Amino acid sequence: MSSSKHHPVPLDILQEVFGYSAFRGQQAAIVDHVTAGGDALVLMPTGGGKSLCYQIPAIARQRAGHGVTVVVSPLIALMHDQVGALEEAGVEAAFLNSTQTLEETQRIEREMLAGRLTLLYAAPERVNTPRFIAQMQSLYERGLLALFAIDEAHCVSQWGHDFRSEYLSLSLLHERFPDIPRIALTATADDITRADIIERLQLEEAQVFVASFDRPNIRYLIVEKDSPREQLLRFIQDEHEDEAGVVYCQSRKKVDETAEWLRAKGINALPYHAGMEQDQRKRHQDRFLREDGIVMVATIAFGMGIDKPDVRFVAHLDLPKNIEGYYQETGRAGRDGLPAQAWMAYGLADVVQQRRMIDESPSSDEFKQVQRGKLDALLALAEAIDCRRVRLLAYFGEDSQPCGNCDNCLNPPATWDATEAARMALSCIYRFHQVTGFSFGSGHLIDVLRGKETDKVAQYRHHELSTWGVGAALSEQQWRAVIRQLIALGYAVTEGEYNTLSLGGDAKAVLRGEVRMLLRQPAVPTRKSKSSRSS
Ligand code: ADP
Ligand code: ZN
C-alpha cells in the first residue's frame, strides 16, 4: 500500500487501521468531504459511528502531510477511552486535561508541536487558553494544523440540553484559523438548536449531514398515570423479568423511594443520583454494567457516556423536559439492535409541574418561551393517538410512515370526541373568574363540572354556576385528560403556587366550538371508591 501514502484512501484506512470492512450510512460521504478540506456539521444518533467521521480524515490528512487534528470534547472519560482505542490501533493520539502531571502535559505538547500527533483531544476550556492558542498558531504557521473536530456540538447552544459556556469561544477557531477545515458533531439537535450551532460556530459554509434518527428496534409505549409504581412493576414483571433496564425519575428522593419499593417487590433495583456518595454511585454503576438483570433507578445524572449494549428497557416515571431528552434517555435501550422498549407513564401533574418549573426558572422570557414550545411538543407526543415514531422523527425533521412497533400502531387507541367537554371546561374556568374573581385548580374544576358537593363548592357558591354539574356524564379520569390536553395545547394555563387555571392562547376558538378535540379513551376505569361516592 505504498501509493496510499500520498493519496490516502479512506476505505483503506477504515480496513487497515480499524479493521472494519465497510463504511456505514453517510460515513463515507462525510469522510470524503472532510478529508478534502470541507467543513461539515454531522447529526447522527448515538452509536451511529460519529468518531470515525473525524478520526479517518485526521489520519488521512496527517498522512498527506497536513499535521495535527485537534478534537474538542467535553467528557474526560470519553477522551480517555478514545485515545486508548486509537493507540491500540497504532494511531498517534493523546489528550490534554486537568488530571495530568506537568511532565506529562509537556511531553504531549512537544509531540504536538513537532506535528507528530495525529489526534489531540482537549476540553473546550483548554482550547481557549492563551497557551494553547499560541501552540495552535505555531502549528498553523508551519502548515501543521490539519483539522478541528468539535464533538457534542449541541453544547454550544443554550437551546440544547447541555449548554456549556466554554463552547461559545470555539468560534475563535474559525476566526484565528479561517482556512482550517472543521467538523462539528452531535447526536441531538432539533431545528432551533441546529441553526444555533451553525450561527455560533460560524458553520454557514458547512455541508450538513443528517443521519436517520430512527431506532427501529425500540418500541415506544406511553401510558396514562393511574398508579404509576404499580404500572411500572407490572411492566417489568410481565415483559422484562430479570432483564437490565433504567428507570428515570425526576428527583433524588423519588429515585431512592422507587428503588427501595421495587426491591421490596423482588426487583433487583439500585438507585443512582448525584446526591449519593461517590463510591456508592460508582459501585452501583459497575454492578449495572457487569451483572445481568439490574434495574437502575436514576436521575438523568445517569447515562452520559454509559455504553451498555443490552439494556432492554428504559422507563420514565416522570416526564422528561423535552423530546431531545426523551430521545436521548430512551436511546440508551437496545444499543445491541435487539428488541427493547421505551415506556413512560405520564399524567396531569407532570404537565403542571413541568410548566411551573419553566415559569419559575430565573431565565429570560425568550428562553422560557422556547422551553415551553419544547414541552408542548413533548406533550403532543404523549397525547398522540397516531404513530409515536412518526411524531418523534418528525420532530427531528424526518418524514416516515407508521412504524408498526409502537403502542398506537399495535393497538390503535379508542377515541372519544371531547370537543364539547373542552368547551365546558374552559367556560367553567371563565365563569370562576367572572363570578368570584378567583381562579381555581383542576381538582375543584372537575368537582364543579361533575356536580360534586364539596365544602369548597359551598363556600364559593359554585353550585349556582351555570356550568355546575354539566359534565356529570364524564368520569374524573376523562376530565383529567381533557384538562391535560387543554394545558398541553395552551388553551388553558396554570399559574401560581396552587396551579390555578386560567384561559390561555386561543381559548376563544375552543369556546366557539372551532377546535375539534379527539382524545384517547381511558384504558382503565377510574378508581371505584371515588367514582361511586360522587355518582
Ligand atoms: P457515536 O459516537 O456516534 O455514538 P461511535 O463512534 O462510538 O458512535 O461508534 C459506535 C460503534 O460503532 C463503535 O463501537 C464503532 O467502533 C462502531 N462502528 C462505527 N463505524 C463502524 C463501521 N463502519 N463498521 C463497523 N463498526 C463501526
Ligand atoms: Zn408507530
Topology:
Layout (H helix, E strand, L loop, with lengths): L9 H9 L8 H9 L4 E4 L7 H13 L4 E5 L3 H13 L4 E4 L5 H12 L5 E4 L1 H4 L2 H12 L3 E6 L20 H6 L5 E5 L4 H10 L6 E4 L7 E7 L3 H12 L5 E4 L3 H13 L4 E4 L5 H13 L4 E4 L14 E4 L6 H8 L9 E7 L1 H13 L4 H19 L4 H8 L11 H4 L4 E3 L1 H18 L5 H9 L4 H5 L16 H13 L3 E4 L4 E4 L3 H5 L6 E3 L7 H7 L1
Parallel strand pairs: 1-6, 1-7, 2-4, 2-5, 3-4, 5-6, 8-13, 9-11, 9-12, 10-11, 12-13
Antiparallel strand pairs: 14-17, 15-16
Helix pairs in contact: 2-3, 14-15, 18-19, 19-21
The chain binds adenosine-5'-diphosphate (ADP) and zinc ion.
Notes on the structure:
The chain is of the alpha/beta class and 535 residues long. It is built from 23 helices and 17 strands. The strands form four sheets. It has a seven-stranded parallel β-sheet, sandwiched between helices. Strand 12 (313-316), helix 13 (323-330) and strand 13 (340-346) form a beta-alpha-beta unit. The longest helix is centred in the last third of the chain and has 19 residues, at 365-383. 43% of the residues are buried. The model is unreliable at 1-5 and 525-535 (pLDDT under 50). The structure holds adenosine-5'-diphosphate and zinc ion. Residues 20, 23-24, 27, 44, 46-52 line the site of adenosine-5'-diphosphate. Residues 387-389, 402-403, 406, 408-409 line the site of zinc ion.
